[in-house]
Amino acid sequence: MWVYDPSRKKWYTPEEFSVLDERIVSGNEKYIAQVKVMDPRDGIKAGHQMLLDIHTKPEDFTRGLLIITRTKSRDIWKEE
Known about the structure:
By secondary structure, the protein is of the alpha+beta class. The chain is built from 3 helices and 3 strands; from the N terminus they run ββααβα.
């Protein structure tokens, strides 16, 4: 298990977090409350899903735009 800091969007190994703990975290309950202990594989899955979403949204937008453009151009030709 690793430590994930959502505010910084950064992963820490247990060793890295223990070093960080000595410098920043000690006595900072607010920081401790926001970090999550997670399986790094879940972070990889989430990252892949984000990339898929980033790739899919422009494709969906372009597809919709093409449909609208084709429909409107057909309507213009019908009016004449």
